[in-house]
Amino acid sequence: MSHEYALRRLWRNTNRTNLEIPNTRATIAVNSTYAEKLAMLKVQRIYIIAIVFLALWNVIANKDFAQDKSESIREKDLRQIFTRCPIYDVNETVILAHETDCTKAYKCSWGKRYPLDCPWIDDKKTQKLHFNLLKQYCDWPWAAGCIDCPGNANDGYPSIKISHDVNNCNLYYQCVNGVKQLRSCSSGLCFSATCQDCVRNRTGGNCE
């Protein structure tokens, strides 16, 4: 009896083990499948978030580009050009063009003008940068719009006035569609690039 009992017990234990092993494997397989699905869901979520982020970034970039382009057009508007120093400091630095010299300018501070010199282009000091009235910084002479009319077909041609290339204060050029047209001041007046007008006394950036 004891031998038969031992065999039965062994048989039961063996069957129980054989029955439990597949269940354990099934559980492991289910857990593994679940983990894989979770991993796939995480990857899909990351992918969706990346797509949304790129889409938003593209919209923001296009908006910024459009804003920058509109600002580049607005900076050519004569209404944005300062001809006198504001009495109170504004949010951005205001620089006025020199009355005659393209390589010089005036920096404004609390209603007063302070002379500025554009830096030399080369170490030999043969040529200086020119002040760009529209962009408010020293620029390459060919791009500054002090000797030649600024602008291009894509951005437009600002209708500014530039000094005459001959030392005659009565003469100046009006830029019309990027072309210089000769103009002259009334008797007793001199053209000032600072004031963008003909004045009686242009010395020191004066517009009176």
UniProtKB/TrEMBL annotation:
It comes from the Eukaryota. SUPFAM superfamilies: Invertebrate chitin-binding proteins. The keyword Disulfide bond applies. Pfam families: CBM_14 (PF01607). One of its GO terms (cellular component) is extracellular region. The chain crosses the membrane at residues 46-66. Residues 146-208 form the Chitin-binding type-2 domain. One of its GO terms (molecular function) is chitin binding. Keywords: Chitin-binding, Disulfide bond, Glycoprotein, Membrane, Repeat, Signal, Transmembrane, Transmembrane helix. This is Chitin-binding type-2 domain-containing protein.
